[in-house]
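Friendly challenge for the regulars: who can give me the structure tokens for this chain first? No prize, just bragging rights.
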Amino acid sequence: MRAVGGHVPSDQPVPRDAAGPGQAGLPAGPAAAFAVLVDGLREQRAELCAVCPELSFEDVPAPRTLAPFATAMAATVEVDEADVASGRLVLLYDPAGQDGWAGPLRIIVYVRADLDPEIAADPLIGQVGWSWLTEALANRTAGYAEPSGTVTRVVTEGFGLKETEPAITGFELRASWSPAGPDGPALVPASPEAPLVPEGDLLDGHLAAWCDALCAAAGLPPLAWGVAALRQPGSRRPR
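First reply, four minutes later:
Bragging rights claimed.
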């Protein structure tokens, strides 16, 4: 079943990675071009780990049913030896494009973090959480198109033998968008020898934008352009 709007539910199992070239029935050109994009993402995440030691990444299985080509990674933010936020990014490539996409590429992200109840109760938390992502995309990337997403507040309460346990409040962001440049949707060449874009990498900044939103949800210090981070349970309010 194809997810509406390109979103992958957090509880949906994802099969093995489908990014490698030479898959049966798929032309070698698009597969090789997608492999170049995957390599670029892995280089970017290595650079992010160098500047933000709280971040760690791992490759995870990618969905097969959403597009002919897909790759996925998970990220965790660790502070004081505790995981305070986690997320997942999926990159989809369909040479023919799909309804709701702007071009052949679609990025899907998921972010989750625990929050102080007073922060989770703020009626503006949805708008604030969404702005972390859109402001990061505006500042980090050459452009993006057709954004779609949701922000959810989750409350976990214990009953019976668990009724003495405190309630846990959480923040979840699900979003998708298409990478785009100043002149329109990003295009993937059929050959890895052709330039992906006139300048820079085709996906430059998109991984960092997701990580900016992930770190803000984790309560890390404000980002360079003044995005406020959330306060994690038991932590001090950011200054």
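Confidence is low (pLDDT under 50) at residues 1-27, 195-200, 222-229, 234-239. The chain has one domain: 45-217. Your move, everyone else.
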